[in-house]
Structure prediction request, 484 residues.
Amino acid sequence: MRGTGGAARAVILAAVICAVLCVRPALPPDGTEVPWGTVGLLTGLYLACELPGRCPCFGSSVPIGAGSFFPLLLAAAFLLPPAAAALVAIPGSLAGRVENAPVAARRVWRTAQLVITVWVASTVHGLLGGGATLGGPGPGLLPDFPYAVLPACVAALAFSLILTALDGSILAAAERLPVRRAWSGLLPSSLGPHLVHGLAGLMTALLWRSSYGPLSALFVLLPMYISCWVFSQYHRQQAAHRATIRALVQAVDIKDTYTRGHSERVGRASVLIARELGMAEDRLEVLRFAGILHDVGKLGVPTRVLRKDGPLTPEERRVIELHPEYGHEIVRGIGFLGEARAAILHHHERLDGSGYPYGLSGREIPEFARVVAVADAFDAMTSTRSYRRGRPVPVAVEELKRCAGTQFDPQMVRALARAVERCGWAAESVAVTADEAVPGAGGGAGAGSGFVRQASGPRPPDGLGDADGLDGADGLDGAAESPR
Prediction:
């Protein structure tokens, strides 16, 4: 377990000891009454579900990682005594795919974790009399189906509670996080899927016990396995999208370190505005990407211009004003960005037609671009720079209202004002990441944002160094605004 911290090793060792104690009653000489035929079949099925993850032919297209096809584990918990059910998890967990180092430590941990979790689920199911509700192969032993659901659901709930508690514990130990933070959000996000897995496990157990025998259980397991594959493909696609966004944002941050964190905050503010406007949920993630990537065109601007100390020359200003078009060219081929591409191109347009690059006015400016323009200006005003403190949020909002109708869409400004009044806004340099989910309407704008990054790099107080050029005594006056 080289590379694993001392605290994490201690948690893993404790889990292994507990796992050994869980399976010990099923081992000789004590396990004389264990239905080894059922144990062997379930173990073989579970191992068959996990092995494709180790096969190069499948690559990353298999639906699951090591020890994660839970319907079979829950079916084992319903069909077998606790110690025997726990044994089912061992071979598949040890043989399954592990993508990140340290591989040995992760594999041992996952195996011990699932042994404990299945043992608890089986114990709870047995205490609630779940075994008697499953029926049997004889004609007089029909399953008591409505009453079989309650023990199965409670056992699935226990399964979810223990699994997430152990996940949070190892996360707290390995990452040195507060336990409360490590556990935060784990149970709500996993409880629903685990209950669905529990119902699939119940159907598997009912068919297994029926007169049709274990083979009939495949009619439940095969569709469930396929649905897991579809679900995992969706999540892999989403992960690829986030990785693309993260790479682009990191490239901009490297080139223009002065405004690091600005783009991520613009994405967050854009979502707050959109929620106030009642935009559909499926548009929020695309809008957040638009905010995060609004300045990606800076990659096409010479670094000496971006980091110049002092006022820009007219020629340098014209070069800077090309960054929306550069950005649009960079993201043109990224299909999943959708409306975000228009926002990247037009976020410096003004309602009165005096903006750039095309001088669009009014409703000619795409909706996403009008949202991002307000979010961009708001964060630029409220962010602290090396040469001046950020403006208070109320002052920034008033400045936006003053320029509504000429530079900004009044509807977007009002939406932002309502959002920050209701949700608040963290005016410090708090950055979120492209991996973070779209924030809920009730959460503070800066809460749970991940990494704290301080603004870096000296800039003179010349009114031209801000991310959106909103410095200077006259704030948003068009003559004073810099295209940066």
User: Anything to note?
Assistant: The chain has a mean pLDDT of 79. Residues 51 and 95 are 6 Å apart (CA to CA).
